[in-house]
Amino acid sequence: TSGRCPWSWSIQARMAAVTGGIDVDKTHVSIHWGGANTRAALTGFGEPRISPLVPTEVGFALEMVLTLVLVTSVIIFVMRISRPPLLGAVYPALAVTLGVMVGALFTGGAMNPARWFGPHIAAHGLSFPRKEVVIYIIAPILGAVLAWLADKTAD
Q1: CA 41 to centroid of chain Cα atoms
Q2: How far is CA 86 from the centre of its chain?
Q3: What is the DSSP string of 43-54?
Q4: Which of 52, 95, 110, 146 could pair with 48 as two cysteines, CB 3.0-4.6 Å apart?
Q5: How far apart are CA 81 and CA 76, in angstroms?
Q6: What is the pTM of this model?
Q7: Alpha-carbon 155 to chain mean position
């Protein structure tokens, strides 16, 4: 919130993001691992994992598009509207929820380099497989840059 909207909207945005994050985490665990009580749900420190059946190119494209949709929803519904609706932050939270539901079985639906980076370091230390770096760090950054470029060219 760089002075573009009142602090009350900022608080609502953070509440929606936290609520969306909790919903997404529950959804991710139940879809990807078959339920919150399974042993697999407790391993890996919540690290998103790519399915062995998904080629790197498909995982890259999926993470890039999911991040592009998320960042575009933030730009449109939070930043571009001079007076965002009372629940304007719900749209980005829905983009995160739907992104995880779509990407959970294929890549884990990270959409954020930090979502993979932190749990990966906690689980594996400083070893970074090239395939995962490309999918979980480069693809989301490229998706965010593409959303920003689309916004700049739309002006």
Answers
A1: 19
A2: 23
A3: SGGG-----TTS
A4: 110
A5: 7
A6: 0.70
A7: 26
